[in-house]
C-alpha cells in the first residue's frame, strides 16, 4: 500500500513535471526578456486610438505587421476586410437647458458609436427617464417627442463585472431602435461602468432595418445621477443635444496575421490574439491593445525558446470588433473556404490585468481537458477555469468545432477604462500584462503538445 502511494504519484507526475518545467521557462522568458510593454507603448502613443476605417487603424495594421516581421515569424500577412467607417463629429453638446435649481448645465457626454448625428439644428426636447428596456412597454405612450434617458446602472453586487455589463448594455446597443417606433427623438444612456465619475463611456449601438435611426449619446455616471435627481423635482426638464456623428461608406481594412507553421500537424491551427481596432477616445490600451500585444508575444516566446510548434500557431489581430465584428467573421469565412481546421482559438479582450484563469466554450471533453491543466497554472495564480466564454472575434470559428478560450484576468477595474479617454497606456501594468501573455503562451504550449479533444 505504501509502495503504491509512493509509485503512483510519481508516475502521474512525470509528464506533468516536464510540462511544469516548460511552463516555468515560458513565464521566465516573458518576465525577463519580453518587450510586450514597449510594444504596447508604441501602439498606444505612436499609433494611438484606431477606430475601424480611421488613419489610426491603418497605422496599427502597418505597425503590427512590421513588428511580427521583425520577430521573424514564418509568415506575416494581411487579410482584407471591409469595415464600417463611423466618424464622431468635431462638436458634441449635451445640456440641461431649464433647470429651475441650476439653470443651464453642461453634461459630460459622448455620441455612441454607429449613431447618427443631430446636425446643426440640434434636438431640444423634454426628457423621460427609464431604468431599462423592460420599462419601455409600460411607458410607450409617454415617449413621443421626448429624449429617452436610460439610467439602469450596472449591478454593483455582481462580482463578475462582465455579467453586470452584459445585463445593462442592451440599453446602449438597442435602446434607440426600441424607442424610435414610439416617437422618441433621441436617447441618452448612463455610461456602462460601476465607477462614479465624470467620464462618459462610448460603445456601439445597433439600428434596426426599417426602424427610424435616432441619435444616441452616453453620459457620465455622475451626470446620470444628477439628471435623475433633478427630474425628481422637475418633470419638465429639457435637454439640448447637438453632434455631427455620421456613418460613411464602408472602407477597406485588414486583419493582421503572423504565423509559425507546424512541424508535425501543419493543418491544425491554434489562433491567439485580440482585436486591433479601438474606440476613438483614449488609446485602446486595455481594449484591446493588450490582447493584440499578448497574441504576438505568444509566438515570440516560441521563437525565443526555440520551441518548434507541432501545430500551426497564428497571432491574429482582428479588425472591427467594436462596431461591426467584420474581422472575426472574415477570418472564419476565409478559414472555412480554405478548409482549415482550428483546433483552438484564444482571445484576450478583458484588459491587460492580472490573469485569474480562462473562460471557454466547447465540448465536455474539451472543457475537461482544460480543467485538467488547471493544476499547472495554479502556481501562477490562475484558478478560475470553469466559466463559459471565449471572445467576440473567435466566436465565428465555432462552426469548425474550434475550442474557444478567453483569457480571464481580474475584472474589477476593467470598466473604469472601457471605451473612455482613460484607456491609455499608463492604465496598464507591465507585470500584469506580461503574466497574461505568459499564461496564454503556456496554454498554447499545452494544446500544441497534446492537441485538443473533439
Ligand atoms: Zn474589446
Molecular structure report:
This protein is α/β, with parallel strands linked by helices and 454 residues long. The protein has two domains: 17-86 and 249-450, Zn peptidases (Aminopeptidase), CATH 3.40.630; 89-244, Glucose Oxidase, domain 1 (3-Layer(bba) Sandwich). The protein contains twelve helices and 15 strands. It has helices spanning 2-33, 36-47, 55-70, 136-139, 161-168, 170-179, 221-233, 285-304, 326-337, 364-377, 414-417, 430-450; strands spanning 75-87, 92-99, 103-106, 109-111, 123-130, 147-150, 186-190, 216-219, 238-243, 246-260, 265-275, 311-318, 341-347, 355-361, 403-409. The strands form two sheets. It has an eight-stranded mixed beta sheet, with helices on both faces. A seven-stranded mixed beta sheet has the order 1-10-12-11-13-15-14, sandwiched between helices. Strand 5, helix 4 and strand 6 (147-150) form a beta-alpha-beta unit. Helix 8 crosses helix 12. The longest helix is centred in the first third of the chain and has 32 residues, at 2-33. It starts with a helix and ends with a helix. Bound molecules: zinc ion (ZN). Zinc ion binds at residues 275, 287-288, 321, 349.
Amino acid at each position: 500500500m505504501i509502495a503504491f502511494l509512493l509509485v503512483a504519484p510519481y508516475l502521474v507526475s512525470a509528464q506533468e513535471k516536464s510540462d511544469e518545467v516548460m511552463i516555468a521557462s515560458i513565464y521566465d522568458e516573458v518576465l525577463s526578456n519580453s518587450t510586450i510593454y514597449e510594444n504596447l507603448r508604441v501602439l498606444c502613443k505612436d499609433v494611438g486610438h484606431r477606430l475601424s476605417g480611421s488613419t489610426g487603424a491603418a497605422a496599427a495594421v502597418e505597425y503590427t505587421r512590421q513588428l511580427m516581421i521583425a520577430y521573424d515569424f514564418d509568415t506575416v500577412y494581411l487579410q482584407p476586410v471591409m469595415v464600417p467607417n463611423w466618424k464622431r463629429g468635431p462638436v458634441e453638446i449635451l445640456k440641461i437647458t431649464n433647470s429651475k435649481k441650476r439653470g443651464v448645465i453642461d453634461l459630460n457626454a459622448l455620441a455612441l458609436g454607429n449613431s447618427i448625428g443631430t446636425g446643426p439644428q440640434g434636438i431640444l426636447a423634454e426628457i423621460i427617464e427609464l431604468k431599462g428596456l423592460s420599462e419601455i412597454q409600460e411607458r410607450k405612450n409617454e415617449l413621443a417627442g421626448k429624449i429617452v434617458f436610460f439610467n439602469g446602472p450596472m449591478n454593483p453586487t455582481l462580482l463578475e463585472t462582465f455579467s453586470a455589463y452584459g445585463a445593462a448594455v442592451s440599453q446602449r446597443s438597442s435602446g434607440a431602435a426600441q424607442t424610435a417606433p414610439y416617437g422618441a427623438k433621441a436617447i441618452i444612456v448612463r455610461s456602462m461602468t460601476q465607477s462614479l465619475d465624470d467620464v462618459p463611456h462610448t460603445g456601439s449601438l445597433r439600428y434596426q432595418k426599417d426602424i427610424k435611426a435616432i441619435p444616441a449619446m452616453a453620459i457620465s455616471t455622475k451626470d446620470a445621477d444628477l439628471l435623475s435627481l433633478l427630474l425628481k423635482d422637475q418633470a419638465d426638464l429639457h435637454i439640448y443635444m447637438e453632434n455631427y456623428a455620421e456613418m460613411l461608406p464602408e472602407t477597406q481594412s485588414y486583419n493582421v496575421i503572423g504565423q509559425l507553421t507546424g512541424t508535425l500537424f501543419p493543418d491544425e491551427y491554434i489562433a491567439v490574439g485580440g482585436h486591433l481596432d479601438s474606440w476613438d477616445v483614449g488609446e485602446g490600451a486595455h481594449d484591446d491593445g493588450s490582447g493584440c500585444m499578448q497574441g504576438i508575444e505568444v509566438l515570440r516566446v516560441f521563437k525565443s525558446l526555440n520551441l518548434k510548434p507541432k501545430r500551426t500557431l497564428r497571432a491574429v489581430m482582428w479588425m472591427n470588433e467594436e462596431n461591426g465584428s467584420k474581422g472575426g467573421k472574415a477570418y472564419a469565412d476565409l478559414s472555412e473556404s480554405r478548409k482549415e481546421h482550428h483546433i483552438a482559438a484564444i482571445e484576450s479582450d478583458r484588459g491587460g490585468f492580472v490573469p485569474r484563469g480562462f473562460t471557454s466554450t466547447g465540448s465536455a471533453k474539451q472543457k475537461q481537458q482544460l480543467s485538467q491543466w488547471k493544476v499547472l497554472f495554479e502556481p501562477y495564480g490562475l484558478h478560475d477555469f470553469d466559466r463559459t466564454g471565449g471572445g467576440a472575434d473567435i466566436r465565428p470559428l465555432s462552426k469548425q468545432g474550434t475550442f474557444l478560450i478567453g483569457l480571464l484576468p481580474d475584472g474589477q477595474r476593467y470598466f473604469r477604462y472601457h471605451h473612455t479617454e482613460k484607456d491609455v497606456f499608463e492604465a496598464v501594468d507591465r507585470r500584469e500584462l506580461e503574466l497574461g501573455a505568459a499564461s496564454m503562451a503556456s496554454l498554447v504550449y499545452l494544446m500544441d503538445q497534446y492537441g485538443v479533444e473533439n
